[in-house]
Each structure stands twice: as structure tokens, then as C-alpha cells.
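ok, trying the design again with the full structure, not the truncated one.
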């Protein structure tokens, strides 16, 4: 199994209006969260690969030898970028966003799953023989660095989620044709 940079977020959802069915509340909240995270990913993932990202996201210091070798071979010292394949893979649109939980319970959990382009896959014959492919131990560190958010980004994503939720709620109410009568 490859180390996957997975950003996991949990947002509290607004309480369900009395005149709305639970299934509509769940659908609206999940759609709003999915759209908010996709927007957040498009806007912020590129910042992880900029020169000032190490200070902003608290990346681990790289060794001077590594930085010199990277500057000599690749002509840059950008964090999380060696050849550029990881940056291209993570910044392309269409990252997988999974939303779980129910809005009725008060919180939704979502994850943005990204895959390293260099992740090895174990061949079936090697696994049967008990040989697992070796992985660079730094891959887990890279995964945690890519998945980090600043406090400002988290607040902006939460605000965007709430705004999208309220827009979808207003649109749902605008096209609704019947009025729900509570059962007594």
C-alpha cells in the first residue's frame, strides 16, 4: 500500500430546518462540502510547492547536501518538487473527494485523496513470495507535508462550506412544491 497524502477534514453542519427531510439535508450538506473542498484544493494546493511554503506549512528542514544536489541537478530548491511530477499530479483537476457521515448527526467528514506519481505497486508474484517493494521512509513525511492546512485556509474552507450550504438550501426551498406537515 502506498502512502497517500490524504487531507481529512471534519465540519459541523447547521441543524436541519424543521420543514426539510433528513435526506435532503444530508444531500445538500454533502454536495456543499464536496464543492467547497474542490474549490479549496484548486486555490491552495499550488501554494504547497512555492518557495515560501516551508515556512507557511512547517515542512521539515532538508539537508544541505540534498539542497545543493537538487540545485545543481534540477536548477531550483522548491519544496516538495524534484522533477515536477508530484506537483503536476497534485495540481491537476479531478482529485478524488470522499464525503462520509450524515449531516443529521451534526458533522461531516471528508477527505481529499491524492496519489504520488512514483508510488510503487507490489507485483502479485512478489507479494506471494513475501517480498514487498521497499519504500523511501521520507514518503510518509512528504504525504503529511502536502496534506497540511494553515488556520486561515481552514477558516476560509469552513466559511465557503457554510455559504454554499445556505445557497443550496435557498435553491431547494425555491423549487419546493409541497409543504411538509409534521406528524403529531
Amino acid at each position: 500500500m502506498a502512502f497517500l497524502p490524504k487531507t481529512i477534514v471534519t465540519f459541523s453542519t447547521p441543524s436541519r430546518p424543521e420543514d426539510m427531510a433528513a435526506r435532503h439535508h444530508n444531500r445538500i450538506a454533502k454536495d456543499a462540502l464536496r464543492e467547497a473542498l474542490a474549490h479549496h484544493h484548486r486555490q491552495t494546493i499550488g501554494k504547497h510547492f512555492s518557495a515560501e511554503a516551508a515556512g507557511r506549512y512547517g515542512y521539515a528542514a532538508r539537508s544541505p547536501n540534498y539542497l545543493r544536489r537538487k540545485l545543481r541537478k534540477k536548477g531550483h530548491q522548491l519544496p516538495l518538487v524534484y522533477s515536477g511530477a508530484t506537483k503536476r499530479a497534485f495540481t491537476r483537476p479531478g482529485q478524488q473527494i470522499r464525503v462520509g457521515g450524515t449531516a443529521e448527526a451534526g458533522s461531516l467528514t471528508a477527505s481529499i485523496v491524492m496519489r504520488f506519481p512514483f508510488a510503487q505497486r507490489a507485483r502479485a508474484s512478489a507479494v506471494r513470495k513475501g517480498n514487498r517493494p521497499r519504500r523511501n521512509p521520507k514518503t510518509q513525511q512528504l504525504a503529511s507535508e502536502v496534506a497540511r492546512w494553515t488556520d486561515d485556509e481552514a477558516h476560509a474552507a469552513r466559511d465557503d462550506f457554510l455559504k454554499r450550504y445556505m445557497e443550496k438550501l435557498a435553491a431547494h426551498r425555491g423549487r419546493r412544491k409541497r409543504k411538509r406537515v409534521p406528524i403529531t
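Keeping the full-length input from now on. Residues 6-174 form one domain.
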